[in-house]
């Protein structure tokens, strides 16, 4: 049975390059209450771009 944890919810990170590529990760609501923004690799454009949290 999966453990439900509301303190670290799953978030979807969408590429800012407009390719539609996404990552799924968890974030801490206590440490980052605002929307998450990370630089990660987008294999469609083959470079590192900014990924922003979407709901």
UniProtKB/TrEMBL annotation:
One of its GO terms (biological process) is translation. The gene is rpmG. It holds the Pfam family Ribosomal_L33. SUPFAM superfamilies: Zn-binding ribosomal proteins (SSF57829). Belongs to the bacterial ribosomal protein bL33 family. GO terms for molecular function: structural constituent of ribosome. InterPro entries: Ribosomal_bL33, Ribosomal_bL33_CS, Ribosomal_bL33_sf, Ribosomal_zn-bd. GO terms for cellular component: cytosolic large ribosomal subunit. This is Large ribosomal subunit protein bL33. It comes from Raineyella antarctica. Keywords: Ribonucleoprotein, Ribosomal protein.
């Amino acid at each position: 049975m999966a453990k439900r944890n509301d303190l670290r919810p799953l978030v979807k990170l969408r590429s800012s390059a407009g390719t539609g590529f996404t990552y799924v990760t968890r974030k801490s609501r206590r440490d980052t209450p605002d929307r998450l923004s990370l630089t990660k690799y987008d294999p469609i454009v083959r470079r590192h771009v900014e990924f922003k949290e979407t709901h």
